[in-house]
Structure formats: structure tokens, C-alpha cells
Amino acid sequence: MRETLSIRTGSRAGGAAVCLASLILLSFAGVAVAQEGFGDPVLGQAIFQSQGCVRCHAVRGAGGRIGPDLGRKGVRGSFYDIAADMWNHLPAMGEKMREFHLTRPRFEEEGDLANLAAFLYFLKYFDEPGDPQTGKTLFTEKHCVRCHAVGAQGGDTGPRLDGLPRSVSPLRIAQDLWNHGSAMVTAMQMQDLDVPTFEGNEIIDLLAYLRSQGQRRAAREFQSAGDPANGRKFFDSKGCSRCHAIFGSGSRVGPDLGAAELRGSVTQIAGRMWNHWPQMNQAMRELGMQRPQFSSDELADIFAYIFIARYEGTGVDVSRGETIYRVKGCATCHGEGAQGDIGPALNAASEEATKENITERMWNHGPDMWAKMMEQQIPWPRFEAEELADLLAYLKSIQSTSSNSP
Ligand code: HEC
Ligand code: HEC
Ligand code: HEC
Ligand code: HEC
Fold it and tell me: Which whole-number Å values give the CA distances from 341 to 240, 331, 337, in the listed order?
């Protein structure tokens, strides 16, 4: 069985390979596809290579250097953020393609862009490789060592932490930390220690250290990336929904987890949840709630759910989208009501009018559009993610309207 899927690039990158755990990707993809429009990240990875994105973009180090590394920066936010980034960079990409004599990426099959977006979106799901050396320092700085032994060093107030399987997923450790939080925080308070918080990559480094000290021989544990459908149920049954909304509707006791600035991988999100332990604990006491406990993959499932929900982004506004359609100059070529003029009608009935597929058609026609606009000295219409979201909602609405009429 194949364990890793690599992106291999041409000579420019010296054949370096980046390994993404395809088992994780695949297991997640099977579930995620059930969501309307959501693509298959594994197929998306293949498109990233076959369409030559990889010749200009690296993913965490492996790949071209002409554009930014999309594993490290660049891909953020919802589908609309990714799509807006891609659209806005069409002219810059065009210049570079001419300079380096590259062929332009074009999506041949409906669904290609959806798959690619799913791949780019999933890049954030996974952690950057942690640094066990830094993690070791943090283990002392955050006072873990006062209560926990690793190897010959450390206290015995808490259990030893060097007995974990090496392959244990970071989220599992984060889950243990959460489950034992109450007893641990009490122990900390007795020793006059502050409850530690984690910034940036700290939790990833710290957990990388614990894993590196783990049991080499322990059985390989299957790392599931979590099941969003289960996660949705746990979000209710574990009481998260009593305090958190995801995009708008729901409780306001805690921050909206759709809109909150939750940058980073799922492990980092788990770290942020831990950082809020005292406040959450307080809020739970006020509501007379039991602190939720998690077993097996439950926490991973919840984070998978939160993560997928964020792909959809905030609500959209069709009438604002109609305005944007005019302001960005689409109406000049496609007609006031999108019935077609210089460019084809955009209101033809379509079975597959997902936001991903409309974006795909826009992308494919981008280079011609750019050329025409250069001729007429019209500046390239750039989009904020929210603007693109509204525009796509508008285009989607006129297509489904026309498909309803006889
Ligand atoms: C010929 C080189 C080239 C190719 C091919 C290329 N890009 Fe780019 N890309 C760039 C450059 C250069 C930038 C930065 C320019 C800019 O900021 O507008 C960029 C920026 C981006 C960004 C925005 C990153 C950010 O931080 O703002 C995304 C997303 C992106 N590219 C995705 C893709 C995808 C997906 C493909 C394949 C379909 C692709 N690119 C193909 C050169 C390329
Ligand atoms: C003041 C003492 C103290 C400090 C400091 C402390 N812990 Fe703990 N920790 C405990 C105790 C006590 C338990 C067991 C709680 C229980 O039995 O529920 C525990 C449990 C754990 C567990 C669960 C272990 C298992 O077998 O399931 C993890 C993981 C953990 N701690 C990690 C950490 C990390 C990482 C740090 C540093 C950021 C840290 N702890 C700091 C006292 C401490
Ligand atoms: C009793 C109310 C309550 C419950 C139940 C609750 N939370 Fe929270 N949560 C909060 C509050 C309040 C904050 C913000 C604390 C602060 O401002 O420091 C928070 C913060 C968070 C954060 C950090 C958000 C950020 O912006 O960094 C995450 C992630 C989170 N909660 C996830 C969860 C999950 C997952 C569950 C269910 C297992 C859950 N919470 C259950 C009240 C709750
Ligand atoms: C300068 C004229 C011009 C402008 C401005 C323009 N388009 Fe186009 N568009 C065309 C032409 C011509 C085609 C068909 C030829 C092609 O595919 O390149 C087309 C094709 C398309 C398609 C593909 C239609 C299909 O059935 O495959 C979409 C979607 C689209 N445009 C959307 C837009 C949007 C959204 C805007 C505004 C941001 C816009 N266009 C602005 C001229 C234009």
C-alpha cells in the first residue's frame, strides 16, 4: 500500500519531494466529497502538478521558486480567498509565463478547479513539521518538566510523557491535555504556576518533542484526519454549540468559530482552544455544564467539522453581487442582464453551476479577457474574497433561475 504521495518536480527543484500523508488526505476526501462542490484534494494534487502550478510554486520547500511557496503562505481563508488569490494573480502569472516560456494552466474537465482548491485548502490542515529541539526547550520553559518526566529528567506530579507511540497524532496529545486539564490546572495552581499558553508554532514543536521521545516500537496508529460529519454531531453533543456559533446563527457566549481569526493547522486551533481553558472553564461553570471529555478521534472529528465549515466562508449577498458584476466591467462584454454581448451569455441553464465550476470557467477565459482588456487599456478587475463570493452567488442565481423557466 502506498503510504505517502509526493509531488516530484522537474530539474529546477532538484527532484526534491514533498511528502503529504496521502492516507490522511484520502480518508478525509472520502467524507468531504459529500459536501456540494467540494473537490477531492488527492486529485487536486495531481492537477497542481499536471497544470504546471508546481513549476512556479513550491509546497513547503519542494517546487519552483518563481511564485510564493503555497504551503507556507498564500493559501488562507475560505474557498473565496483561494479563488480570489488565483484570479488576482492571473496577470502576474501571465508575465512570468512569457518570461520563462511556460504553458498556461487551463482546466480541462469540469471539477478540476474544485479539486485544486480542495488540495490548496487542505495544505493548511496539516502541521508544518515541528522542531523537537525547540520543543525540548519549551518543555522546560512552559514548566512541563516540573511535573512530567521524559527520559531521566523531570518531576513526578503528573504521569511520564515518554511512553506515547511515536506515530501518535498531535491532536491525540492535545486531546489528552484537554481531558486532564482540570486536574492539571489544579496542580499548577498549587505550585503557583501560570497555566501555559501556546503561540504560533509552539504547540507543534512541543508535541514534536514528545513524539520524538516516544516509544519506537509501539504499534503504528492509524492517523485519521477526522470525520466532519461525526464532528458536527459532537459539536452539539459535547456542548460546543451551547457557547459557539459557526458563521452567525447560534450562541454568542464564546467567539464565532467560523469568523474567528483561526489561522493555522488543526493542531494550532487545538492549541488556541487550550489557551482559553480558564475562560471556557469559567463559562461552563456559570452555565452549570459538565466539562466535555473526549475519546478516540472525537476531538479530531470536531476540528475537521470546524475546518470544513470555514471553507464555505461567510454568507453571500446576491444583490451586492449584481452590483459588482457591473462595477467590475463584466456587463460591458456580457450584457446588463448577462444575456450575452461581445462575450457569451452567462445565464444559460447549467446543471453544474457550483461556485467552483463558475470560477473554473472564469479562470479558463482569464487570459483572453486579459489580452482584450490590455488592448482597451481597462485595468484587470481584482477581487476581494467577499466581492468574489457575492459575484459568484449572483451568477449562480441567474443560472438556476433560467433553468427553472420552461
Ligand atoms: C508562471 C509562473 C506561475 C504559474 C504557472 C502559476 N503561478 Fe501562481 N503565482 C505566480 C506568481 C509570480 C505569484 C505572485 C504574484 C502576485 O502576487 O500577483 C503567484 C501567486 C499565486 C497565488 C497567491 C499567493 C499569495 O500569497 O497571494 C496563488 C493562490 C497562486 N499563485 C496559485 C496558483 C495555482 C493554483 C496555479 C496553477 C493553476 C498557479 N498559481 C500557477 C506565478 C505562477
Ligand atoms: C503542576 C504540574 C503540571 C504541570 C506544570 C504540567 N502538567 Fe501535565 N499533568 C499534570 C497532572 C497531575 C496530570 C494528570 C492529570 C489527571 O490525572 O487527570 C497531567 C496530565 C498531562 C497529560 C495527559 C497524560 C496522559 O497520560 O494522558 C499530558 C499530555 C500533559 N499533562 C502534558 C503537559 C504539558 C505539555 C505540560 C507543559 C505545557 C504540562 N503537562 C504541565 C501535571 C502537570
Ligand atoms: C460554556 C461555554 C463554552 C463551551 C461549552 C465551549 N467553549 Fe470554546 N470558548 C468559550 C469562550 C468564552 C472562549 C473565549 C475565551 C476567551 O475569550 O479567552 C472560547 C474559545 C474557544 C476557542 C478559541 C477561539 C479563538 O478565537 O482563539 C476554540 C477553538 C474553542 N473555544 C473551541 C471549543 C470547542 C471545540 C468546544 C466544544 C468541545 C468548546 N469550545 C466549548 C466558551 C465555551
Ligand atoms: C473584454 C470583454 C470581457 C469582459 C470585460 C469580461 N468577459 Fe467574460 N468572456 C468574454 C469573452 C469574449 C468570452 C468567451 C471567450 C472565452 O472563453 O475566452 C468570455 C467568457 C466568460 C465566461 C465563460 C463562459 C462559458 O460559458 O464558458 C465566464 C464565466 C465569464 N466570461 C465571466 C466573466 C466575468 C465574471 C467578468 C467580470 C469580472 C467577465 N467575464 C468580463 C469577454 C469578456
Answer: 51, 9, 10
